[in-house]
Amino acid sequence: MVHGIRSGPDVWDPLCRLIAQDEKLAFAEPLQFRYATGVRRLHPLRVFPTIDTVADSFKEYLATEAGEFTRLMLVTHSQGGLVAQRLLARVLADGEGRRLARIRRLVMLACPNNGSELLLSLRRNVLGLGHPQERDLRPLNDQVNATLRTVLRDVVHATAVSDRTCPILVSAYAGESDRVVRAVSAQSVFPDSAALPGDHSTILKAKDAGHRTFTTLRRLLLTVPDAAPEHAPEATMTPAELPGLQRTVTNTFSGGRAYGPVIQGDTVHVSFPSVPPFQAPQAGLDADRSGNDDTSENGHTDRET
Predict the structure, then answer these.
(1) pTM of structure
(2) Contact 52/90 with Cβ under 8 angstroms?
(3) What gap in Å lies between CA 235 and CA 214, rounded to an integer?
(4) Quick one: pLDDT at residue 132?
(5) Rounded Cα gap, residues 153 and 170, in angstroms
């Protein structure tokens, strides 16, 4: 469980209590990751970590504190979703995608995937000018967008575990009444997205087992995959059976070869002016390997495609 900016692990206490009380979730052990965050810091020897640094800290947390677990489900709130995504992107960029195979699901609650516009100028003043974590909360942040593209390509749409890819189920939820992170940002472009009752903070305040955030997490916990796919599925169709496939044909221009994609269709007869063939250094590149002369009486060469 990964909290957001100006928050801490205690925000997960209501959900953790409900998980502990549910007999069917006895297999699940909540772990609460903590990182440094807050408002303006005046200590001359301390700074707030960037999202990259927090992601590296989270990587070590998973290797040590969560090292004994064979299946992991990451649950994040707000900025915590950016931390989790940055972790995935950085590990994949390092060619260590197989280390992520234990992570079977990522659940993001009210994550500002496309930034948060609420009180933008006031937020900068409250958190402090140049706050490294606040920068990633701004709309149209280049690094956040780059991370999002990586997660979509190499995680959400991945088909096998490799050095650069790791398929993980990702679910993005918006708060129905959330004005801090609107639904368009929280759900973003993730295929598995929905909304849950509450605003930016009350989405986590589950008072009983009927709270929909808890019932949703419960369902997702009970359906965590046992294993991640190890190999990409092989194609079962031949190229001729694939609709719209472009094929390469060879035509003769001055004795050489020309390649180009064509749309599969009926037989087409194409005539080109016949000219003395160019003497290529390698005779094996001739288009007509049989040695047949297809030059017609009118001085044209007929080819069938």
Answers:
(1) 0.70
(2) yes
(3) 40
(4) 57
(5) 12
CA 34 to each of CA 5, 7, 84, 89: distance values in angstroms, whole numbers, following the listed order: 11, 9, 13, 20
- Start-to-end CA distance of the chain, whole Å, equals 60
Using an 8 Å Cβ cutoff, are 97 and 164 in contact?
A: yes
Tell me: pLDDT of 202 over 90. Answer: yes
Taking a C-beta distance cutoff of 8 angstroms, is the pair 56, 43 a contact?
A: no
| Element of type H or E holding 121 | helix 120-127
User: What confidence tier does 49 reach under pLDDT thresholds 50, 70, 90?
Assistant: confident
Measured CA to CA in angstroms, residue 65 lies from 15, 92, 124, 227 at distances of 20, 21, 34, 21
- Would you give the DSSP letter of residue 68? T
* Cβ pair 84, 92 in contact under 8 A: no
CA distance 280 to 277: 9
Nearest 5°: phi and psi at 245? -70, 135
CA 258 – CA 271 distance, rounded (Å): 14
Long-range contacts of 287-294 (CB under 8 A, 24+ apart): 287/250, 287/251, 287/252, 287/257, 288/252
Distance between CA atoms of residues 65 and 52, nearest Å: 20
DSSP of 220-277, one letter per residue?
A: HHHT--SS---SPPPP-S-GGGSTT-EEEEEEEETTEEEEEEEE--S--EEEEE--PP
Phi-psi region of 255 (alpha: psi -120 to 50; beta: other; left: phi over 0): left
Asked if pLDDT for residue 223 goes beyond 90, the answer is: yes
Residue 221 is predicted with a pLDDT of: 97
